[in-house]
Amino acid sequence: MNTTFLHNVEEKIVSIEVDSTHLEAEIVLPRSCQGIVVFVHSSGIGRYSTRNRYLAHMLRQTAGLGTVQIDLLTPQEEAIDLRSRHCSSNVKLLSTRLIGAANWLINNPLTSDLKIGYFGEQTGGGAALLAAAENPDLVGAVVSCSGQTCLTSSVLSNLQTPTLLIVGENDLPTIATNEDTLKLIKTSDKELSMIQNASRQFKEPGAFEEVARLSSRWFEKYLSINDNLFHPTTVSSN
């Protein structure tokens, strides 16, 4: 584990073992942070993307939250995925590894007291919802951005975690599936936010900044250390 300190922020590069698979992750912890948000990436590209690093910075600066950028696929799986897209579209695989990574955080002394949130885009959003639905005691908040929620509809009635669904106004197919998803989720702490003039990728001026603002507000609300309703415990990833 490599650790550096910069501007009251602790940064670590770690290897997280999930079912004998080693996943590389970058953990950044502001001093006295209240919770920690795991970004659901299916490849290393997501971990280094400018957009996701901007969002992680916003969560740390505006909400005082730690962030985890993790590759849920190994380099070998990524190489295979370039040809087949089999692994990155396997929502069950991604959600199982996400649960394993969350268990690792709970058992790590530096992060064990922090509430955990999930942020995922598209397939990653579906994986985040599936992981939260299958293990409601593990996670305190979820944000799914343009999530492929149709892949998880069979378990959404079990979802008890506060959930924010974000879609672009011009992404009509995703709006329809996310509206259906909202109806299936039983918790009252749920919301569907539509960003004006935005497409699925949120590349329009100001669109992803709005994604960051909404996500930061949601995680800050539900991962607050002053809320004693949620106490994470290690759970099975099976």
UniProtKB/TrEMBL annotation:
<dbReference type="GO" id="GO:0016787">
    <property type="term" value="F:hydrolase activity"/>
</dbReference>
<feature type="domain" description="Dienelactone hydrolase">
    <location>
        <begin position="88"/>
        <end position="187"/>
    </location>
</feature>
<dbReference type="InterPro" id="IPR002925">
    <property type="entry name" value="Dienelactn_hydro"/>
</dbReference>
<dbReference type="Pfam" id="PF01738">
    <property type="entry name" value="DLH"/>
</dbReference>
<dbReference type="InterPro" id="IPR029058">
    <property type="entry name" value="AB_hydrolase_fold"/>
</dbReference>
<protein>
    <submittedName>
        <fullName>Dienelactone hydrolase family protein</fullName>
    </submittedName>
</protein>
<keyword id="KW-0378">Hydrolase</keyword>
